[in-house]
Amino acid sequence: MWDQVIVFGYLAVLVIVGLRGGGKIKNAADFTATGKRCGTAVVFATLSASFIGGGYSSGNAAAAYESGIGTALALFGFGIGMILIGKFLVPGVARFPHAKTVGGILGNVYGSRARFVTGLFSFLCCAGVVGAQMESIGLVFHTLLGVPKTAGIIIGCSVVLLYTTFGGMESVLTADMIQFFLLALGMPLLLLIAVIAGGGPAATWRAIPAELLDPLNQTTLPAFLSLFLSMMCGEALAPPYMQRLLIGKTPRETARGTMLSGAFSLPFFLVTAGVGLSARALGIEGDPATVMPDLILRILPIGLRGLLMAAMVSIILSAADGFLNGAAVSLVCDTILPRRPMADRAQLHCLRTVNLLTGLAAMALAFLVPNVFSILLLAYSFWSPALLIPLAAALLGVRADERTFFRALISGVSVCLLWNHVLCRPLGIDGTAVGTLANFVVFTISHFVTEKPLDKAPKAVYSPLKE
User: Fold this and answer.
1) Do 21 and 170 form a contact (C-beta atoms < 8 A)?
2) Pair 329, 239: CB distance under 8 Å
């Protein structure tokens, strides 16, 4: 009873945050929260809350429970990628002081058609990630609170839709700060209590089957490396992350916050994998997808159990809200408005409508594809094989034209889809990494063969598109 009160009380707080934030939203700029407003701490917390979702928490625990530590180590690719982005790419954000989306950056470098396509691909990627989080929230509500999975998806999606549709990015940032606090404390606490319940670190370690400590258990080295690269590239510079980088106060503070976020993810992935391994050591049986909530129900007392339930819900909602906002902003600002200009009030209505419809579409996706990692990998195929390389090049100051952009995009997406759905992932290698490599090769060759040699664009040469 009290556990349910805590969880639904937390959800009520998020709804209140959204409604209060909605009262401050007067125009489209308020909804997208443009402006250099976030320091190192806010960038660190909101980035971390955004990328740590169901796949990187309960999904990682499930993978560790079922096949061992390999998935957690492959996830290190994401954290290392974030550190490299902070070190080498974030400084390039200063080249685009007026941009508020990925499309705003790529449109400035490669032209208006590139901006239009970027908006579409950003939308598809973000909507897919939101669908994955809705699938996770359904499982969490079902396991922790006894709510039918379908009803859990509807409840979770409704809460996210309320505070993101009314409050926009302002409410998302506020909610992320609350959610980061819960997830940063809740998951280590759960692991600690699980290890104590298992008789201490030594006893828990001995109870874990030896094969689960082998990174290549149930996989091959090529498949492991491809998953590592897919994690490194799959979400790199995705729309919700770029939104946070574009509203950082200074490039230095934004870069520092990004690198801290990447560094934070590494122990967090080990913690959530440790939760799955501890559940195996404790003899918890059942569906691997629900191992984390099952563990919470088994070892925690009333009250503390409710707080950890809220932490699990928080993890999933924190990823869903950022990607949902990113989907709406990308589609409206990069695809709709450049071709159909609107008055400011109409822009705000359009943003809210797209946000609402995207959430509903993501909820439908969660019903149709009941597997978190499958949805995530599908979403990734619309991002890194298509846009990561041209975006990284733009941030590094590399000048290329529209032809190079589209050649690379078409090659990357085609190779990814061919590899995954026609060749059926030879050697267990995922097409995201292969498609991204194809994009890089075509982008580089096209640039050298058809354009001027690669060089750096001077910072002074910036002519922002009207956004």
Assistant:
1) yes
2) yes
Give the range of the structural domain holding residue 147, as residue numbers without chain letter.
2-380
Question: 392-423 burial string, b = 16+ CB within 10 Å, else e?
Answer: bbbbebbbbbeebbbbbbebbbebbeebbeee
**Residue 62 · residue 291 · CB < 8 Å:** yes
Mean pLDDT of 219-229: 90
Against a cut of 0.90, is the pTM above it?
no
Q: Is the Cα torsion angle 298, 300, 301, 302 positive or negative in sign?
A: negative
326-341 burial, b if ≥16 CB within 10 A, otherwise e? bbbbbbbbbbbbbeee
| Cα torsion 336, 338, 339, 343: sign | positive
Residue 454 is given by DSSP the state: P
* pLDDT recorded at residue 375: 66
Q: Structurally, how many domains does the chain consist of?
A: 1
pLDDT exceeds 50 at position 118: yes
Q: Is residue 423 part of a domain?
A: no
Let me know if residue 187 belongs to a domain.
yes
- Cα 109 from Cα 221, distance rounded (Å): 38
At residue 96, φ and ψ (nearest 5 deg) are: -130, 65
Average pLDDT over residues 117-121: 94
- What the block records as the tokens of 24 is 């401050």
User: What's phi and psi for 337, nearest 5 deg?
Assistant: -65, -40
Residue 260: CB partners within 8 Å, gap ≥ 6? 40, 44
Which CATH number do you get for residue 279?
A: 1.20.1730.10
Nearest to 231 by CA among 359, 59, 448, 450: 59
DSSP 88: I
Q: How far apart are CA 103 and CA 96, in angstroms?
A: 11
Structure confidence at residue 3 as a pLDDT band (50, 70, 90): confident
Angle between helices 112-145 and 291-299 (to 10 degrees): 40
- The H-assigned helical ranges of 68-148 are 70-84, 102-110, 112-145
Q: Which residue has the tokens 């169901």?
A: 54
Does residue 431 form part of some domain? no
The per-residue pLDDT for 463 is 34
What token pair was written down for 442?
Answer: 């075509």
Sequence-ordered list of residues with C-beta below 8 angstroms from that of 362, at least 6 positions apart, any chain: 127, 128, 130, 131, 133, 134, 157, 320, 324
- Considering only CA atoms, which of 210, 196, 200, 190 is closest in space to residue 294? 190
Beta bridge partners of 38: 248
